[in-house]
Membrane-flanked domain-containing protein
Amino acid sequence: MSEARHTAPLSVAVGAIGAIRSAIFPAVAIIFSGIGGSGRFLIGIGVGVASIVIGTLVSYIGWRRLTYTIGAQDIRVESGILSRSARSVPYERIQDVSLEAKLLPRLLGLAAVKFETGAGGGEDLSLQYLTAAEGERLRRLVRARRDEERAADSVSDEPGSAPEDADEGEVLFRLGPRRLLTFGLFEFSLAVFAVLGGILQYVDSLTNFEVWDFDLWRDLVETQGVDLVALDARLKVLGAVTGLFGLVLIGFGTGIVRTFARDWGFTLTRGPRGFRRLRGLFTRTDVVMPAHRVQALVIGTGLLRYRFGWHSLSFVSLAQDAGSASHVVAPFARMDEVAAIATSAGFHLPDARTHWQRASRRYLADRIIRDSAILLLAAIPAAIFAPPGVVLIPIGLAVLAAGVNLYSWEFRRHAVDDSQIFSSHGLLSPTSQTATRLKLHSVEIAQGPLARWRGYATVHLGLAGGEFAIRGVPLAEARALRAKVLATIAATDFSRLDQSAGQTLSDAQSGFSANFAAT
């Protein structure tokens, strides 16, 4: 067993700067709150300095008490100042190793190393922070140990050794500045107003200034010589239009800024070990996804971007990606780009030969009755108590709900071929899922009282790291689907699945590439 090591000493500096940031608000709050009278300025400064000293000391002690050990079979992390904990994770249980560098650690040359175990519930292991070189070296070492390779053949186990070059491979997808800008326009957001509202709420509670007092703002405007009542109607309309235009600009600007911050430099490559995704302007993430651990594909879109032919592609895997079970591998792509990535992962997308099956008509009828009945019931008190004509509103909404259900039924469908299962749903922004039958863990047929009476069911496919449910399937079709999946699982020797995954994927890619070219 190797000796225990500490994380990078500069981790203490990150903690100290974090303590400074945390000390600003209480110090400012005391200074402007009136606590302590004329001496509140000194009290605020004292509280701020004390918070910084204590935070820095805690950061240093925490760094001293945190160690990690690279063993032959597992990696062990010991931490805790007063209460100590030691956690060991076998290499074979680590599904993914990712590097994440937020802005401040990135400026200091540091990165957080996250070991995804697929356990969920915050049970994944992380080290904050290592140098970027040490983080890359550790990732390679863990991957080599997990694949039962001898670390000495490819990676040195010495702390100061230089990492290998990054996996060289084919670039499958890249987001350039122009496409990022287009992407940002579709990410329209007014979240900045929520943040601004929160700040104003704090100002309102800490000072004597009534932020939400309309009369106060009107008086401030009128003290500048502007009489709001006497303004010409055209000026009022112009002011309203200008305000609306400014609101739209802020919404588009917020979407563009968020998109550039999250996906700047987005690059997806396919190397010998799998997929590697880089992205982020301020927080830079470096995620490696072994190809044979990709469980399913999710293709999504948006209400407007669907009309312009833009889609997103995510891999469902055992690991987590920012709290989600899906790794976004192409957030803003055309379908031909999505198809190329899917092929590289060993999947194929549905085509003209795919035999689609729709949900049960009884399921459709039940949804129409359920949604329309609620609105029709609301029409009864409207007819009794509301003015004439108001009753037409819930009746019209009931008819609209029936029409939407009827039309969306055309887009709720599923299909099964020799190796995969497809599901698609959504009227205005369709979402489709594709799963390999070989990687499903279980099949569950669920029926409520109404579904049992009407003869349809929801099929839940056991997918590690995600959910795959097909609703409204006729019972006979559900049982046939279960039999096909169970036959595939029963015919597979899962003890040899990982070892043969690379060759299987290669064969699948070659075969599909030939078929795709032929079509």
Notes: The chain has a mean pLDDT of 79. The two ends are 55 Å apart (CA to CA).
